[in-house]
Design goal:
The chain has twelve helices and two strands, in the order ααααααααααααββ. The chain is mostly helical. A two-stranded antiparallel ribbon has the order 1-2. α3 packs antiparallel against α5, α7 runs antiparallel to α8 and α9 packs parallel to α12.
Length: 342
């Protein structure tokens, strides 16, 4: 049985401006809250209160527990923070996809409000993690700040080709990936008795799940409106692989920092090639790719390619997991030169 749509007739794609208008109406009708600030947690809710008469004791207890987090997990936590710190700068990319959802930066339409609300929520993640790392006393914040500045200066190209379909496919994938990574840090932190960062990462992961579901619903709506175009967009993103937003990070000395931290994260089981393959499988199932009624030859070829990809990636990922090698120990600028690797 094929999945059909009332918006798609005789193989004629819906014009992009009509798709954008339909997405905005969909968000207005189905995303009524649009991320209200008064329902959000804030970083200060989860950190020592420096206004308290007992603030010094609070900070001492905080630092004592933070000392339990292993350095290799701390490396991933720092990299996650750097990624989150840079995310609000991507507002311009997402707001200007296609012919633009929010070119003025102050648009009142539902999509513009969503995008601004989304980056505002994400900003809290970077703030909370940066404050944790600063108060922990275990991190060279100058080296971390240099890395953030370099990441922003180096730029970001998710290879979405100014396509809002590809853009929302990208964010669907990335929100799930960041949920997995933050959850993985929380799991390992809790195993070592560091419950305060575990709780903070759980809060962040909860936000990422909400964001993921929103973007997944937007992509499902695009499939409904223009199946062939969206199928081609998904195939294009999967052919290129999903580029991680922190790929261009540098600390001023190590030009291969991303690859090394990725290897540490893979080795710890926080985010692995198997997770990448499982995200791909999840999205193909969620969007019911096999049931979508595409009409053009190009759309059908793209559909076949997409359906064949997850099983192949899962096999490759399972083999890669079995061959995981130790990471070469090396000094880490973020940790004042301490040696990390195993």
């Amino acid at each position: 049985m094929t999945k059909t749509s009332n918006h798609y007739d005789a193989g004629t794609p819906t014009p992009p401006h009509e798709v954008m208008a339909a997405l905005d109406a969909y968000m207005e009708n189905n995303f009524s809250s649009l991320l209200p600030v008064d329902k959000c947690w804030q970083p200060s809710d989860l950190l020592p209160d420096l206004r308290s008469p007992d603030w010094l004791d609070e900070v001492s207890d905080f630092r004592r527990m933070a000392a339990a987090l292993p350095d290799d997990v701390l490396v991933t936590l720092i990299a996650n923070m750097i990624t989150e710190e840079a995310l609000p700068s991507y507002h311009a990319w997402l707001a200007n996809l296609g012919s633009g959802f929010d070119r003025s930066g102050t648009g009142s339409n539902a999509m513009a409000r969503w995008i601004r609300g989304w980056v505002a929520e994400e900003k809290r993640h970077g703030d909370a993690l940066a404050s944790y790392l600063y108060l922990s006393g275990r991190v060279d914040m100058h080296a971390v700040e240099v890395t953030i500045q370099n990441l922003l200066r180096n730029g970001f190209n998710p290879l979405t080709e100014n396509s809002f379909a590809q853009g929302f496919i990208y964010t669907s994938f990335q929100e799930r990936a960041t949920y997995i990574s933050h959850s993985g840090v929380a799991r390992l932190a809790r195993q070592h008795g560091e419950t305060q960062i575990a709780t903070l990462c759980d809060h962040i992961a909860g936000d990422e799940v909400r964001h993921e579901r929103a973007y997944e619903r937007l992509v499902a709506k695009i499939f409904e409106l223009t199946p062939d175009d969206c199928m081609l967009a998904l195939a294009s993103m999967l052919r290129k692989t999903i580029i991680m937003p922190s790929r261009t990070m540098q600390d001023g000395t190590d030009t291969d920092l991303f690859s090394w931290f990725s290897a540490i994260t893979q080795r710890n089981g926080i985010y692995t090639t198997l997770d990448y393959a499982r995200i791909m499988q999840h999205l193909v199932r969620l969007w019911e790719i096999e049931r979508i009624d595409v009409r053009t030859n190009a759309g059908k070829q793209a559909q076949e390619f997409i359906l064949e990809l997850p099983p192949r990636y899962l096999k490759l990922a399972e083999r890669a997991e079995a061959r995981t090698k130790p990471c070469k120990p090396r000094p880490v600028s973020w940790l004042s030169g301490r040696i990390v690797g195993h």
